[in-house]
Amino acid sequence: MSLNRRVMVEAAKKPVAALDYEIAQEMASTLGRLGHALEQALQSLARFDADHPRETLTPHERDARRALVSAAGHALWNFVVQREACGLRDSRQIMRDYHVPLDVQYRMGAVTSRAGGS
């Protein structure tokens, strides 16, 4: 009997099991999307760093890098929060597996004000 068939049989016996299964699927899907977003943000930062040595950055390039670090920090924050919601509390593994730079780790969860108010 396949997993989906087994889940359907179990759901017929216990409706709550069907809800639990749907919630678990959604949590896994969200975790996957947020992990991919983190990978993308870290790759963008790595590409920028490869093309722009830090010691020669212009003020405009420093601002661009700061924005990439901020975006990666936000993506990291989202991923860590979702993992914690799934019961995965140790974020050290993320930092190692995704090779998260320290400046991104320090920006995790930090919110900057937007230009123009709000």
Architecture overview:
This protein has helices at residues 3-13, 15-51, 59-85, 92-97, 102-107. It has five helices and no strands. The protein is elongated and about 65 Å long. By secondary structure, the protein is mainly α. The longest helix has 37 residues, at 15-51. The model has no long low-confidence stretch (mean pLDDT 88). It has one domain (3-107).
Can you give me a brief rundown of this structure?
With 118 residues, the protein is mostly helical.
* Strand count: 0
Count of separate DSSP helical elements: 5
Query: In what range is the share of β-strand residues?
Result: under 5%
Structural domains: how many: 1
Poorly predicted regions: none
The arrangement of helices and strands along the chain is HHHHH
User: Roughly how many Å apart are the termini?
Assistant: 55 Å
Overall geometric form: elongated
Mean pLDDT, rounded to whole units? 88
Rg for CA atoms: 20 Å
List the helices and strands and how they pair.
Blueprint: H1 3-13, H2 15-51, H3 59-85, H4 92-97, H5 102-107
Entry keywords:
about 120 residues, mainly alpha, about 0% strand, elongated
